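Exercise 7 asks you to align residues with tokens for two separate proteins.
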Amino acid sequence: MTESHMPNGSVRFDLEDGVATITLDRPETLNSMNDDLMQDLSSALSEVEQNQDVRVAVITGEGRGFCSGADLNNAAETGSDITNVTPAFSDSDFFNPALRSLHQCPVPTVARVNGVAAGGGLGIALACDIQIAVRSTFFVATFGPRLGIVPDMGSTWSLPRRAGRARAMGMAMLGERISAEQAADWGLIWKCVDDENLDSEIQMATETLKRTSPDAMLRIRQSIDLASTNTFADQLTTEMEHQAVLIPRNMQEGAQAFLEKRDPFFDGTRS
């Protein structure tokens, strides 16, 4: 296993057997976001993009929290301008670029939600392909009712697509805490699990994902993202275009594995 901290020391990067684990490492603030953390997140995602040995990436938080949103406490303590550290700064050099990199990651991404995901932390979790959360935690969009701003970090894109307009509006305007169990029932996340089962569930998911074709996983993400705006006919065309690329690469191995009653083996080649 290789383990390292990113340049600012706010994110840890571990790679073992094809699984990159990216840990937000500011546990004293429940892994709240500042420029250092978001720059480090971008650096870790760049490692994933450049390292062909990575087959799946897991995003998680150190300690009790996944990510508690923007670091407002630091600004208050230092007397700095609060407008520079609220979620409105997501257009800065580090915030939105990190979210774009996460959403466009060339391998499947899994949010290991080990604790609260609030504000921008909700955006980070929802930017991943799959979310697995402990039963004891909750999700909350604090932007509107508590800060008087619009949800950002991609939340206004992710929430209605995952949970529907009514629930997205309720979360954004009322700022109520949504339990992990409720989030799973709504389709906001993939799965809610007992706290003691989190690591085993993550391992099962990553074992499956690291055996898949990275190119197929990327094209699945792209297809599903387009589905909410495509017409039915357009979506059929999208599927056909992806199949035209993937069938020559993968179908023979998939069919052969089916006939031989074994798991298929796809190499990690990325397009």
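Second protein for Exercise 7:
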Amino acid sequence: MFPTWEQGAGSGAMESTYMVKQERAARTRSALIAAAAEVFSREGYCNASLVAISGQAGVTNGALHFHFPTKSALAAAVTTAAARRFEGVVAQGERRMGQGGALQLLIDTSHVLVCRLREDTVLRAGFDLGGDPGSPQGLDEVSGLWQRWVESTLERADTAGELLEGVSAEHVAIAVVAGTVGFQVLAKRDPRWASHRVLTRFWCLLLPRVSAVPAELRGGGSG
């Protein structure tokens, strides 16, 4: 028996309805992640309530629990989303790499990161959750990604002869990660810490002590 036109039309309508539901679910999930990032960043993991998050997202508690059964699952989703955005920060920095080599790449990417942290709540929450002593273990993915990328880039700089003789890439990485992440923590009370001016001053202080050619580098970024 061959399907009639009406049967085919019914199948198409069902598929269309399914797609609409899927799109609605994806929008709800994205709204919940954005809302959770805002609340986690503002109140900290322990003080953040699912009621506040669902209210911020404009959805019911039932809808929240459908997508995320626990607060820790929601925090993990925020961290995963922040990690993807961090990869975009690194990609943007890599696209700028040109005359300055690995050290200039590190400077430029740190400026991109600090700028994005000011503007992107999800990315900011990813760093905040990783440094929050009250949050569950395993949420330090974003800060860990940044640390490993900084270490790798400084190893490239060392191999290329960009570091002063006797300067340890590992030790420079500690200073850079502590400085950039520390500025973000301080910026929660005073936004001026997460500014282009402050980060430029940091690099202008550090570069003469670690770079073999500090005069060729731009502490304020090359972009």
